[in-house]
Structure formats: C-alpha cells, structure tokens
C-alpha cells in the first residue's frame, strides 16, 4: 500500500513538472513604439499607420524616452491603429496591455475605440478606463475589453484616446500596446524580455586551437544530430498525466492483491 501511495506521489510530481514547462502565450497583436525606424509610419497623405489622421495630438519619436511621444494640442486627442491582418477574434483576445507615462494629466479617463466586422466607429465600440498610474510615472495597465458589449466578432482597427478630456500642453509617452488572450498572459508579458534576444540564441565563441577544431570536426562527422524536441503543449500534459496516474493506480491494485 505504501508503494502505491509513493507511486501516486511521483505521478503528481510528474504532472507539476510538465505543467511548469508551459509558458504564458505572447501577445496576439502588438504595436511596438520603441523602434525609432518603425514607431511612426506615415503615408504620403499624412495618415498614421494607414488609418486616419491623429486628432489633436502631435506624434513624434522621442530619443530620450526611446518611444513615441504625443503632445496634446486640444480636446479629445486620439490616434488609430489598424491591424495588419484584421482577423483578430475579439472574444478570445479580450485583454489589452498598454505601457505609458503621462505628464500633466488632469483627467483620469482614457478610452479604446474599435471597429469590427459588424461595428463602425461609435460608442457601442468603445471601452473607457481610468488611469492607474501616478502622473509622470511609467505604468503598465491591463484593460479587459469584454466589459464592452461591442467587443465581438473580428476586430480590424483600434483607436487610443489617451486623455478623454485633453488639454494643451499635456504629454503622453507610449512604449507599446498589445492584445492578449487572457489576463494571465497579459500580466506575465515582459516587454524587456520580448525585445531582448534569448541567451540561448547567442552564438558560441569560435574555437581557437587547431587541434580542438579537428577533433570537433571528427566528432561531428560520426555523430548524428539529435532530433529537435517539440515544445510541450497543454494537451501533452493531460495525456502524460492520465498515463502516469493510470500506471500508479494499476500498481496500487497489484500491490493490494499481493498484500492479501
């Protein structure tokens, strides 16, 4: 009986080990405003990102903050951001994360407007939210768009209203705006890590000794490269869990019979 319990304990440990190998999913869509070459993309007619002229906000790349800077020049400032591939399923991607810093904020309200395959620009396609950070401090905030009844179907454009009641002289800096499938994914998202190449991708230094190079070449010639191990998926966890638990259960039954 004790052996059966031990096997069950091992099975549980295996399950948790596999679970830990599954990482949070990245953004379904991200607008990265930290790249000086791509942070601002204007067409010949002055439209921003191919969709609509910014309203009462002058956008420019700021070399000091290394991101987009918006200078408010009147009430109701906003700019639009179309999706390159307008097939984002709203219901399964309802969390927007934005990194911003506002100078001189007097109104706590911000808004996201959006259009879908059934809704054009209107209050039905909007979600208002309150500024969560202190004035002049970088803030990462998550907005649950499922609070808007219009967030359904396929989303094709997003509009960011950084200050619903903007005033001349106010300034906002924005590093990125991203859409995620879950709040957990949005919370886990690390923009710095996203921008920094993984350490595993760093090229190893070249060998300097001729003898070492010859030995490495001989070894490589006689060694078959291991197959790439596929990433563990959620379905694999449940499959392995069921198999291990079944084995543990079967072992428990056998041990019980023997004990009799």
Summarize the structure.
The chain has five helices and eleven strands, in the order αβββββββββββαααα. The chain is an alpha+beta fold and 260 residues long.
Using only C-alpha atoms, the radius of gyration works out to 26 Å
Largest sheet: 6 strands, antiparallel
Dominant shape: globular
Class by alpha and beta content: alpha+beta
- Percentage of residues assigned to helices: 25-40%
Oligomer class: single chain
- Order of SSEs, N→C? HEEEEEEEEEEEHHHH
Unreliable spans = 7-22, 42-48, 199-245, 247-260
Query: Treating each run of at least 4 consecutive H or I residues as one helix, how many helices?
Result: 5
Tell me how many strands there are.
11
Q: Which properties best describe this structure?
A:
alpha+beta, five-stranded antiparallel β-sheet, six-stranded antiparallel β-sheet, disordered C terminus, 260 residues
Describe this structure in words.
With 260 residues, the protein is α+β, with helices and mostly antiparallel strands. Helix content is 26%, strand content 26%. Strands 1, 2, 3, 6, 9 and 11 form a six-stranded antiparallel beta sheet that branches. Strands 4, 5, 7, 8 and 10 form a five-stranded antiparallel beta sheet that branches. Helix 1 packs antiparallel against helix 5. The C terminus is likely disordered.
């Amino acid at each position: 009986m004790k052996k059966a319990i031990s096997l069950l304990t091992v099975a549980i440990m295996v399950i948790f080990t596999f679970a830990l190998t599954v990482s949070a999913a990245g953004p379904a869509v991200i607008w990265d405003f930290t790249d000086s070459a791509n942070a601002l993309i204007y067409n010949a007619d002055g439209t921003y990102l191919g969709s609509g002229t910014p309203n009462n906000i002058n956008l420019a790349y700021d070399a000091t903050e290394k991101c987009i800077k918006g200078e408010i020049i009147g009430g109701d400032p906003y700019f639009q951001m179309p999706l390159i591939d307008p097939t984002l399923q709203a219901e399964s991607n309802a969390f927007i994360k934005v990194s911003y810093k506002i100078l001189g904020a007097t109104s706590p309200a911000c808004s996201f407007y959006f259009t879908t395959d059934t809704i054009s620009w209107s209050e039905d396609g909007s979600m208002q939210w309150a500024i969560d950070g202190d004035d002049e401090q970088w803030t990462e905030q998550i907005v649950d768009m499922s609070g808007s009844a219009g967030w359904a179907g396929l989303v094709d454009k997003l509009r960011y209203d950084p200050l619903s009641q903007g005033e001349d002289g106010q300034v906002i800096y924005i590093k990125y705006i991203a859409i995620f499938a879950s709040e957990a994914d949005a919370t886990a998202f690390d923009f710095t890590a996203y921008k920094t190449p993984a350490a595993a991708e760093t090229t190893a230094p070249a060998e300097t000794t001729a003898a070492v190079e010859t030995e490495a070449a001989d070894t490589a010639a006689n060694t078959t490269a291991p197959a790439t191990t596929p990433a563990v998926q959620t379905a694999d966890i449940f499959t392995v869990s069921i198999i291990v638990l079944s084995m543990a259960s079967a072992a428990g039954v056998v041990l019980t019979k023997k004990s009799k």
